Amino acid sequence: MQLACLTYNSKLAVYYLLLSSGRFAFYRPEPDVNDLLRVPIPKNSHELIEEIKNLDEIDDLIYQSFSLNESEKNLIEDLCAYTLPDYQGNASSPGRQKTHRTTANLLETQEEPELRDYCEYFMRVLTAGFGQDKGICATLFQEATDRLLPVRLIAIHLDKSIHERIKIESITSQSLFKRLNQLSDLLSRKDDSVAGGIFYQRVARIYDSYLWNGEQIPTIYIVKPDKIRYWTRSMALRDADEVAADIKRERTTMGVVPEAFHQ
Length: 263
Description:
Structural class: alpha+beta
Helix content: 25-40%
Distance between the termini: 51 Å
Oligomer: single chain
Shape: globular
Radius of gyration: 21 Å
Largest sheet: 5 strands, mixed
C-alpha cells in the first residue's frame, strides 16, 4: 500500500498517465479508475520508505524500484518539466523560454547549460551505436554580442576530436549571423499576424564538413529555434537516433560520413 501511494505521487505516474490516458491528457486532467489501476506499482523496494522526506526522494525511490536507467529517467523528467507545462500553459511556460547562454547558482557559473546537455546526450547515443573509439566532439555557436539570434546552431564533428568534447565558439562572421536570421524566417511559418499566436517552427539538420587544419571533418550542423523545448536531453536522444538511422541507411550527403561509421 505504501509503495502504491508513493508511486501515484511520483513523476513516473504522471508520465505513464499522460501517455496512456486520454482523460488525463485532456485540458482537465481526470483519469478514471481503470487508468489509475494500469499504473505499474513496484513489488518491493530496498529503501526505507519511512525515511523519505520530499517528492524528489519519492521519485528516486520509484526509479530505483523499477531499475530505470539514466535515459529513461531523463524522458520522465523532461516530460514533467517541459512537455506537460507547455501543453497546459502559454508563452510563459518553461519549454518556450530562450536557452540560457549562462546560468549561475551558489556554487558555479555555467555556460550554455541546455545546449551542453543536449550535445552530451547526442554524442552518447552515437558512441553507444557506433563504438566508443569514434572521435566525436561538439561545437556550440554563441552570439558575440548582446544581439541574440532567434535560432541556435551546433555542430557535431565525426571521426576526429578536433578540440575538447564540447567547445563554445563565438559567431564573429556577419555573413553567418545574417544567414541564420534568414534561415529562421524559412523555418517559421506564422498562421496569423498576432504576436505570440499559433505558428509552426521547423528545424534544420545539415550533413556537411568542417575545415580544420586543412582537413575536411565530417560534421552534422543542427539549427533549431531558441526555445528550451527543442534542446532537452530527451530531444537529443530522439535526434541522435534519427541521425544514426540516416548514417546506417547512407542517407547523408555523399562522402560526408566516414567509412568507420558504416561498419
